Amino acid sequence: MTATQDTHTYENGEKIYVATDCIIFGFDDGILKLLVFERRVKPKQGELSLIGSFVSPNESVTEAAQRVLKEITGLENIFMEELKCYSDTSRDDGARCISIAQYALIRIGEYDKELVKKHGAHWFEVDKLPKLVYDHGDMVQDALERLKLKSRFYPIGIELLPKQFTIPQLQKLYEVIHQKELDPRNFRKKVLSLKLLIPLDKKDKSSSKKGAYLYKFDYKKYKKLEEKGFNFSIFK
Amino acid sequence: MTATQDTHTYENGEKIYVATDCIIFGFDDGILKLLVFERRVKPKQGELSLIGSFVSPNESVTEAAQRVLKEITGLENIFMEELKCYSDTSRDDGARCISIAQYALIRIGEYDKELVKKHGAHWFEVDKLPKLVYDHGDMVQDALERLKLKSRFYPIGIELLPKQFTIPQLQKLYEVIHQKELDPRNFRKKVLSLKLLIPLDKKDKSSSKKGAYLYKFDYKKYKKLEEKGFNFSIFK
DNA sequence: ACAAAAGTGTTCTGCATACACCCATGC
DNA sequence: GCATGGGTGTATGCAGAACACTTTTGT
Question: What keywords were assigned to this record (chains A, B) (predicted)?
């Protein structure tokens, strides 16, 4: 047993492999999807896994995750947050390895399709997800829970929508994340009352004949409000 | 750069020291306290740090934290939750080391005083906290934020109170955590309306002449409600 | 003309807020 | 008998929940 007093002396420490795995969510026309990756090499060749990497000695865990994300999707500066650390001794069948999982929310229209294809990654609907290797399935479940919780109080769902979006689109997103139907009148009222959507006087006609007004999210205003301790909740 | 496809092949992985640090909160008669530890050995001898340990190859991070907590306080089966991973390359001045911080909430009357003394640990009031080594100060700030957030929606504050407690005690706890005065009538009404406190027909006279009724928290009932997706919030 | 989705307004109810007084007891 | 903290009740307002109809336009 490593004696408590000895942290930061290193003598009693043994090194461990440290990895990060990314749970990459996308929202495609009413459906929540996950970017997973088909393993091309042994072990577990042909099986599905999250996209991950070892953390190298000259980068933080966050940097490692950002590197991975860029490598696969070409995207930078996107929403990504630490989920939790997976460290069961039995989680892996090789050497001892812990993984700090991160979940990312991307706009599904914006990633680099060539890169994704090149790496053998595919989008799967979250509710039709096949088995993933090791504890990656748990990671996805935990990430879904987190998304559900966090999106109630923080506008992170916005990161999954195109920069310009309609209110029905936003509603559908919340319905999918929370697996719950919402009343369109009350939803609209609540969302608009927050005064965080900027109307654009443009319509999106892709999903109806009448067309729905486009909005964009007022990041600046939200940031100011957040600093003042502002807090909202979409449902009770 | 570690290629993404190679996770779980280990060839490209380099090992890193993995530690865990515990942010141990206690609530002592209206004051929120933190258990910190005076370093007896070099480096940083005499400075204050959180209690931590390296994670050994045959234990999970959680197990390591539980081991540390037991070693220092004698306590087992207490509330502890992962906070986050601290992994900046510059966070330490020795070898590369990441730390997965965990915060724990203990009943300050129940720990083993001999053990704590033996290890050179002391309680400090959180708002009079001296400088801690490395990024431990950040960890404490982050833990306080988390405690604030989580205690609004989950009854984790209970873990800081004696098993039998009064409503004024509970209120004081919330006031300290949220740094906000609460109306005693409304607080009482809200708390009792949840029907999660079992009245004990006993009074605690330690803080008033009249004495205040003692209650205990109905863990079983809460667990059932939680499974059904029940959700409360102490404030708006 | 009609189907399909977008958009609008009102009522009701419950919960958070604000607020003032009596109670029990040790000193 | 008085100071100290504990305990109770009520009025108000706001925000969430429930709910039905009109608008636009492509076909």
Answer: Hydrolase
Selected residue of A6, A11, A16, A97 to mutate for chain B interface (largest B Cβ count, 10 A) = A16
Strand partners, B29: none
Count of CB atoms situated within 10 Å of the CB of A33:
21
Cβ A40–B13 below 8 Å, yes or no? no
Q: Where are the beta strands (DSSP E) in chain B?
A: 15-28, 31-38, 48-49, 51-54, 79-86, 97-106, 121-125, 165-166, 197-204, 212-217
pTM, two decimal places: 0.94
The contacts of residue B164 (CB under 8 Å, 6+ apart) are: B200, B202, B204, B214, B215, B216
Interface of A with B in 24-83 (CB under 8 A): 37, 39-41, 43-44, 49, 51-62, 64, 67-68, 71-72, 82
Separation between Cα atoms, residue A214 and residue A30, nearest integer Å: 16
Contact between A2 and B43 using a beta-carbon 8 Å cutoff = no
Per residue of chain A (236 residues), give pLDDT as tens.
434 544 556 767 899 999 999 999 999 999 999 999 998 877 788 999 999 999 999 999 999 999 999 999 999 999 999 999 999 999 987 789 999 999 999 999 999 999 999 999 999 999 999 999 999 999 999 999 999 999 999 999 999 999 999 999 999 999 999 999 999 999 999 999 999 999 999 999 999 999 999 999 999 999 999 998 888 998 77
B182 touches strand D (CB under 7 A): no
